[in-house]
Amino acid sequence: MQWRLLLLLLLELTARAMPYPITFSARLVHRFADEMKPVRPPTGYWPDQRSMRYYQMLLTGDILRRKIKVGGTRYQLLFPSHGSKTMSLGNDFGWLHYTWIDIGTPSTSFLVALDAGSDLLWIPCDCVQCAPLSSSYYSNLDRDLNEYSPSRSLSSKHLSCSHRLCDKGSNCKSSQQQCPYMVSYLSENTSSSGLLVEDILHLQSGGTLSNSSVQAPVVLGCGMKQSGGYLDGVAPDGLLGLGPGESSVPSFLAKSGLIHYSFSLCFNEDDSGRMFFGDQGPTSQQSTSFLPLDGLYSTYIIGVESCCIGNSCLKMTSFKAQVDSGTSFTFLPGHVYGAITEEFDQQVNGSRSSFEGSPWEYCYVPSSQDLPKVPSFTLMFQRNNSFVVYDPVFVFYGNEGVIGFCLAILPTEGDMGTIGQNFMTGYRLVFDRGNKKLAWSRSNCQDLSLGKRMPLSPNETSSNPLPTDEQQRTNGHAVAPAVAGRAPHKPSAASSRMISSCRVHWHCYLFLLLLLVSALY
């Protein structure tokens, strides 16, 4: 900072002391000109003049400068190294959405279920009791699933019982013992247990021109023993917890300063989808606030003011619900379920029926073999925000077309419901943890992609374009870094004499300038 002030002072004194005007000139050289090659970074790529790569690099610089000028931040959108795409694999995998992730060094691929209702990322590891990993056990896999072992990853680290994320630390005999974990889930007798480790999660960031890799350290569960649904095909290769707890992947990424404290999920009706860490959604989206549970924001809970079937908004249908991508279907409190099903039954165009094996009570045979027209189902929130359920029914098909459909909701005890994956279809849902709100906007999930379906094998390449400027909203502001420095001391007698003598001889200032510039370089 001091040399800059000195340089400005010398320039002003020079200008005042010069006996006649002098014009300074400099030759401008383009940053990709041949003359600049000797001073380019050793590892820098040098494009050929007017090649496609040449224009791409110029545009990349323009985009970066534009983000800085309009208040862009250091935050970015991240997605798994195999791409942002997710997929549902049907009944074999519990109707949940899955994505491929890479963990460890060297990296190993895992097909993990996406669960906004829990926090921990766990994968099958040094298995004692795990689900089958052979592709022959599943009807829609083209390769075997993998098993993780910390001993085979150069970047893995054991998590000791003294670590702040070790919930089972009180059960340890020593603080240096490796931390055990045990997570139980809502499904009956469903759990995962093992040891906690730290390792690298491989991600990508970037835009339409290029992507860059990101290695993020995360804590994960070395799942040695699974039970219940996790032995029957649900999440056989692990589960990615997306909850608001400290041990979730979005929390690690946000606390590392890599992303905004948010992520988005988008599920399309063709069983494809998208996931982005750090996404805050478009400005046109609607939203509602998250509600605390027992004073804590330990899960994603929202408050529904009322429910509407068609144009009829029903009284006494307010309730609280957990938003959970790890639940396939939607559950409503008994009093809400009763009011909704009664009104739906009056408005639907079909004959009440039942189907063998169907878990739903309100099922119908359509008046034709075409896709049925059903009354709309709308959730109302504060400030008149509304969420129109894209497809509230589950349709059954036969050889000749539609044979029936059911209202895909179920009653649950108590006053807490669950908004499952079937209600999320057709929306880009933003879990904005920083602002404690859930936001949504209609989407077919293709506005974040090139429209290609996610490959069943992680070895296939896929494009991972990010949302456009209109789709992605940031609230950050560019702030110049603070500059620390000492107050200047009173000039010495020697320096005063030099300045005095140079008032007469202006070329002294040019000499001082040259000395200063040569010292800097």
From TrEMBL:
Catalytic residues identified in the record: D115, D324
Q: Which UniProt keywords apply?
A: Aspartyl protease, Cell membrane, Glycoprotein, GPI-anchor, Hydrolase, Lipoprotein, Membrane, Protease, Signal
Q: Where is this region: Disordered?
A: 450-476
Against SUPFAM superfamilies, the record matches this protein to: Acid proteases
Q: Where is the signal peptide?
A: 1-19
Any one Pfam family match given in the protein's UniProt record, by short name: TAXi_C
What subcellular compartments does it reside in? Cell membrane
Sequence similarity: Belongs to the peptidase A1 family.
GO MF annotation terms:
aspartic-type endopeptidase activity
GO BP field: proteolysis
For this protein, the record's Gene3D superfamilies field holds:
Acid Proteases
Lipid biosynthesis as a keyword of this entry, yes or no, is: no
Keyword Cell membrane found: yes
In the bilayer, the protein is annotated as: Lipid-anchor; GPI-anchor
* Domain of life per record: Eukaryota
Upper lineage: Eukaryota, Viridiplantae, Streptophyta, Embryophyta, Tracheophyta
Q: Name one GO cellular component term.
A: plasma membrane
Q: What name is this protein filed under?
A: Peptidase A1 domain-containing protein
Name all Peptidase A1 domain ranges. Answer: 97-441
